[in-house]
């Protein structure tokens, strides 16, 4: 994964500080602080995880493989060596007291010397193992510093492993962020599809209503036309028109007769 981080860093710094052969471990946590210029909620760490998901899915199991990091991040060799030194002094003080008691006269029921002798024997063996473990831990930690190019630093295990522990925590949180983003996107797409379906359904219903209205109007117009054709075929329309014509002629004749009468009366009066 660190190789991928280095490749991304060289690409981003292309033409400026690109072509680096490595980077300081302390720079690892700056990935989460590098935000996108388009979406400030997206960091370089999110982009790194997306690359891993697509091309290197096995690396995503890294947190489970480094499950002891939180405990390692609590270890400080300087403090541990100090505590080991205090144990050494305490054990030496017990040995001195035991040697003194051996030279003293003891009562028959006094079991201090035999009990403490057994204690010193067991404790010395356990303490020797503890010193060996401390020496082994110191050597392995020195090799780890060399492996990551930090041999010149004076970092303690709590600082060194704390960097990786912080990174893994941010790594897990970023994965959760991506999952939440995907769920929100899926929900938005589902909502958009539902809205599109509802809109299409409303348009279909509106079109069907308009179609029914047009069909009703056409049916009424068609009914009137059918009535006219039927009247023409039966001759009823002509009978009705003939009656109207006779009534009109009769009214015209009556009107002309009245006008003639008025003219005759006017002449007599003159």
UniProtKB/TrEMBL annotation:
Claim: Coiled coil is one of the keywords in the record: yes
Keyword Coiled coil: yes
InterPro entries found in the cross-reference section: DAD_dom, FH2_Formin, FH2_Formin_sf, Formin_Homology
SUPFAM superfamilies: Formin homology 2 domain (FH2 domain)
Coiled-coil region list: 168-204
Pfam families per UniProt: FH2 (PF02181)
Key words of the record: Coiled coil
Domain DAD: 219-250
One BP annotation, GO: positive regulation of canonical Wnt signaling pathway
UniProt domain FH2: residue ranges: 1-197
Protein name: Dishevelled associated activator of morphogenesis 2
Organism: Myotis myotis
């Amino acid at each position: 994964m660190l190789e991928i981080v280095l490749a991304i860093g060289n690409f981003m710094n292309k033409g400026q500080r690109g072509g680096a052969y490595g980077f300081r471990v302390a720079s690892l946590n700056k990935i989460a602080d590098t935000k996108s210029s388009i979406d400030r909620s997206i960091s370089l760490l999110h982009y790194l995880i997306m690359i891993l998901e697509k091309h290197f899915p096995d690396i995503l199991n890294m947190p489970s493989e480094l499950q002891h990091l939180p405990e390692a991040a609590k270890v400080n060799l300087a403090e541990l060596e100090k505590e080991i030194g205090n144990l050494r002094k305490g054990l030496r003080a017990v040995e001195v007291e035991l040697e003194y008691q051996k030279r003293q006269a003891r009562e028959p029921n006094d079991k201090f010397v035999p009990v403490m002798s057994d204690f010193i024997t067991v404790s010395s063996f356990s303490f020797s193992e503890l010193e060996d473990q401390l020496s082994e831990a110191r050597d392995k930690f020195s090799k780890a510093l060399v492996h990551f190019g930090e041999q010149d630093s004076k970092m303690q295990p709590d600082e060194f492993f704390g960097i990786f522990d912080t990174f893994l925590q941010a790594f897990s949180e970023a994965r959760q962020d991506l999952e939440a983003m995907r769920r929100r996107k899926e929900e938005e797409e589902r909502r958009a599809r539902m809205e599109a379906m509802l809109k299409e359904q409303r348009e279909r219903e509106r079109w069907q209503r308009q179609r029914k209205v047009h069909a009703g109007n056409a049916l009424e117009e068609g009914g009137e036309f059918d009535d006219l054709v039927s009247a023409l075929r039966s001759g009823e329309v002509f009978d009705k028109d003939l009656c109207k014509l006779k009534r009109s002629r009769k009214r015209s004749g009556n009107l002309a007769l009245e006008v003639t009468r008025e003219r005759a009366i006017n002449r007599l009066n003159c």
